Amino acid sequence: MISFENRIARQKRLQNRWLAGHRRLSRWRIGVFLGTVALAYGLWSYGYVAAGGSAGLSGAMVFGVLARRHKKVEAAIRRSRTHIALLEDRLARVRLDWKNIPITNPLPVAADHPFAHDLNLIGPRSLLTLLNTTTTPKSIEWLQNHLLTEVPVLEQTQRNQRWIKDLAIRSRFCERLRLVGTLALHSQTEPLPASEKILQPATDLPKLWQGLLPMLGLAALNLVLFVFFPAFWVGGIFIYWFIYILHFQKLKNTFDAALDVERYVHRISDPFLFLETVRIPTQAPLLEILDIFRSTESRPSSHLKTLRHIATAISYTRNEFLFVLLNTLVPWQYICTWLLEREKVKLGTMLHRWIEAHAQVEGLAALANFAQDHLEVVFPKIHPEKPVLDAQELGHPLIPLQNRITNSFTHAHPQEIGLITGSNMSGKSTFLRTVGINLVLAYAGTAVNARQMHIGGFRLFTCLNVSDSVNDGISYFYAEVKRLKLLLDAAKQAEKKPLFYL
Question: Residue 69: pLDDT above 50?
Fold first, then answer.
């Protein structure tokens, strides 16, 4: 925590220097503007037209240089503020300062899930909220799915653990990944569409081409009329726009989808390019995931370059004046949309793989942040060959460290029952939740709150938060019976891993 506080203080000092430079550049720009206007006007007034023009041009050039520098300083200030906010967010997560931790809205979870509703895994002040440092809905989905895996695949758990251990020693990579993603997210003023919507073709290319061809012909005819027969040009423009509007209404969804892609491309480009260009040692396990961003045939920099050019061309039509001007000269939106749909066909599979890989890296980085930021955690030893649970000084990650009580627990034999006894309010349910939530962390591949832990493969099942429902007409007894029925059904699935019931 001291390290976080020192880094926050250092970033604030850096931000203050950027702010001072910002104010200084503002004064310089005002001075250059006023000085250039005064000097140019004075020279012109005394008849020195050429000198006045030169002074005006020189002042404009200096003003442009200062404006470009000013823009870079503003970007640096924005980056610094975001970095400070992210450091403060991580400090809040270490301290379990829930009022300063954004709530993560989970995806819908089935009511009969074996353990999701009993272990504070989703919702406010939950494990998902504590862990989630991702920046995209797809990344949240990846993280939630790995926390709620009903039948753990220990080979996948071991791979995740290897990647998370690698990321845990690359704190700068994890910070930059989140910073780039957050800056890209905040650059959008509207909510982004889902990636599945983006990947779907808005229309078929032949249909779009059939609408584009006559518009290109009319645009060429209007050009000829404008040059050789100006008197007929107004009529040609009227017919052109009449047909354009008819086709525009038919293909409006295509244009809307094109604008969505334009926003989406600007949102995802920076995170993808970061994963392509960031330096990682050649032997690092993380490169197994990043290969999709770095292999010659699938580099985002080469594939997204054309897409970004098209998206930028489409963005010009957001201005009403440019919309009319460009579409009068040529069927601008038709051309851009047709090019964009053609690129989407080429990139459909590739874009999907990039999105999936980015979500995986962000989810693993979130789990690695937990392992790195908490000194009281350890990576468990995985034993695929035997169903064992041996945990020393096991603690609950959602209880503040100063209030946390640790206990040891061992389960070494199949079909063995561990009976937890104690008086009311002695912590029996908390202990059961402690065991369950650490198993969830272990199977996700990250560190657990323990001094030492050995685990085998279990299917976790809990029955801790059963309640009645007046609206559904379910009594507490009937709710218990339904839960026990689910338990019996799970226990009969002998071909799966042993059932660990809490």
Answer: yes
